[in-house]
Amino acid sequence: MIKLHHLNQSRSLRTLWLLEELGQPYEVISYQRDAKTHLAPESLKKIHPLGKSPVIELDDLVIAESGAITQVLIERFAPERLRPALDSKDYARYLQWMDFSESSLMVPLLLELFTQSAGVNDNEFLTGYIAKEKHNLLSYLNNELKEKTYIVGDKLTGADFMLSFDLIMLAQRGLLDDYMHIKTYADSLSGIDSYQRALALEAKYDASK
Predict the structure, then answer these.
(1) Is the pTM of this model over 0.85?
(2) Whether residues 22 and 95 fall in one domain
(3) Which helix (H) or strand (E) holds 29?
(4) Which of 7, 31, 70, 187 is least surrounded by Cβ atoms within 10 Å, i.e. has the fewest?
């Protein structure tokens, strides 16, 4: 059975949603962030040295990084349903969008979160970089999503699961109103039954709420 080591309010929501969509038996081991530091508990380091989530256990392997987890689970349980064919043009686009959420889009989002939390919004260079980079990336994503239900092809893929967490962060900060194609896309994803089940489970496992 798949074991998901799930931290509340983390990228682990992606994996929780994917597991609900796959319909495979799985077990959730839940962890809570520290109420003051917002950091993961030390107990997660017993599973993986970095002490981060998501982490899954599958076939006696401990696998970290949500992108890797997403690809492993899809290749194992739903390659034909949740990714483009390997010999299709969409496959390269699929890999690009799988990486986009963590390698490009997440950077300015986290920088903005950290600068606001640390109260360093008076750094003109940093705030200027964040605003410009965020707008460039969101404009790019917004244009790519014009008249699309999913980011790649005409079906749900792992790339949608990867983007979902970024979109939650954007929505929580009210940053989607100027990017209506992204907003429409996010609203569409949020209506998927497995996504709704994952959100309900996330709320269940989140002791801070």
Answers:
(1) yes
(2) no
(3) strand 26-31
(4) 187
